[in-house]
Amino acid sequence: MVRWGAFESAAPELAANGRRLLYQGETGAGFLGTVRKDGGPRVHPIFPILADGELFGFIVNLGWKYHDLVRDGRYALHSFPSAEGGEEFYVTGRAVLVTDAGRRARVVAATGDRQGKADFEALFAFDIERALHTHWANWGTPATWPTFTKWGR
Amino acid sequence: MLTWSEFAGEAPEMAAAGRRLLYQFGIGLGYLATVRGDGAPRLHPFCPIFWADGLYGLILPESPKCGDLARDGRYAIHACNPQDRDDEFVVSGVARLAGERVAAVRAAFLTSPGATSTGTETCFEFLIDRALHAAYKPRSEGNTWPPAYTRWRAGG
Which of chain A's residues have a Cβ under 8 Å away from the Cβ of B93? Predict the structure, then answer.
């Protein structure tokens, strides 16, 4: 389990593709999978943030996914569909609640003060265990075929 | 746990909104969360398919998510938001094997633009026990929070 920076050092091309696919717009965007209390899966959108060599996300502390991550930090994060189609980025690992005020302030600043200003926005750091980039050749045709680039155990 | 049509009978507006979001690209597109063998979540895009009364998926048998669904059918599916707003639609429940319907579901799927099939997929029907729709104002209107939430749960 490593922070984004260590993942980036170990697999720079994969991490660069991941950054590009997580940041297709002004802010990061992806779908976050968590585990419910009863063991079933949950999925919701999230705004991932790459800052300070780490992958973060602010999550409202009244929501179900906050409680999921506090109870069982295991997560799966998938990029939104790529603009041209045919590319995906996926990471899994463990999320940890960040309580350090200085670390939080740096992440808030990295979003241009657009996220994390309210107390109910809890900050999680997403440590990485595995990453996957998929490129679909001949996207949108019957001859489409994926090429996978994987990192992690 | 209800079929899509039964869910739509109980919550028609929500089901219509969900169907629009899942089919906004002409071909169905959603993000399917499943449970890995070790209990952790798995999440990948897939093509939801509406056929007859149900919501289906054709999953490659060698894919990890096929193994997940065969072992523990619990799933959650989230639609993509439209380009101009952040609307959400998510359903969850239990998937069951529907091998006897695979040919009809595949035929229905192949009518969608860009759809392809290996001819080997495993067919699952997604039964529904919870749904959530969040309707946002367009982003062009500035502050779009909070959205209007609609929730549904089987059995009330």
Answer: none
Residue A39 has its nearest CB partner, among B35, B77, B116, at B35
Residues of chain A contacting B69 with CB distance shorter than 8 Å: none
Q: Could you report the predicted ipTM of this complex, rounded to two decimals?
A: 0.94
Q: Does the CB of B133 have a partner CB in chain A at under 8 Å? A: no
Express each pLDDT in A51-76 by its tens digit.
Answer: 999 999 999 999 899 999 999 999 99
Residue B126, φ and ψ in degrees, nearest 5: -100, 110
B22 contacts B65 by C-beta, under 8 angstroms? no
CA dihedral for A120, A60, B36, B96, sign (positive or negative): positive
Q: Please tell me if residue B78 touches chain A, with a CB cutoff of 8 Å.
A: yes
Query: How far B130 CA sits from the closest chain A CA (Å)?
Result: 11
d(CA B16, CA B1): 19
The reported pTM is 0.96
The alpha carbon torsion through B67, B70, B71, B75 (nearest 10 deg) reads: 90
Which phi and psi angles does B119 have, rounded to 5°?
80, 5
